[in-house]
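Okay, is this right?
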Amino acid sequence: MKILKQSPLLKEHFDRQIDRKVTAKRQGVNESLGGGVLGAFGAGLFQFEQMKNQVKGTIGENLVSMLAISLPENWFMLKNALIPTTKGKLTEIDLLLIGEPGVFLIEVKTWKGSWTAYRDNWKRRERTKWIPIENSPTQQSVYHKKMFQQWLNHSLSGFNSDLVMAPVVFPVAKWLKVRECSVPVCHGLAELRQLLTHKENKLNLQQMQQIATLIVELKIPFSPIPKKPSKKTCPYFTPTKLAYRREAPRCTKSASG
């Protein structure tokens, strides 16, 4: 497995983008509670929840990336991959994998408890009731897939859109049932591994490296991707040296000691 790295400046740009968004929401919570002590308390509670969710997300991403490391050596992996959108901003993909079966944009949800979804409409169970949730993880993955496909089609020629998959994985959920969602949903790492390894090969090694290079070489500033793929033929994309490191082999203790 080859671990990809993007420019630190790209991460700094994205963090500023998120900070502005979080600050606006925190101020909204403060104002909705009338400001003062109560508003400050509500804003502080909102900030705490944001930090807690970030920690949980990082743990889940690390858990899934451990599974990815066991994939073939010629695969590429990038955690928290950043790609441009049609709005001129960046969007983040929890875990991006490139292999012969295609490109996998994995959304990791470390949600506990019981969950159900029908046609991308999600609900969580609270005691005996099912409560609808606002942010659909499958719709989020659909957006990631759409942005990535448009960026790929605009930047490289000769790649079919069906080589991109955007599964959502729930590594710690107690119970999960989904029907007719727009993207695959995996309950646990075993289902995710089966999805990754039981697909027909669609990419050769050169194409895998072309896509990896495109991701690694994204720099600030960048232009928004067009809303419709360009009809013009792009020049042949010559692979360059990638910024990756090989994962060191892990040692395990035997049962005897």
Confidence is low (pLDDT under 50) at residues 230-257. The longest helix spans residues 36-69. The longest strand covers residues 90-99.
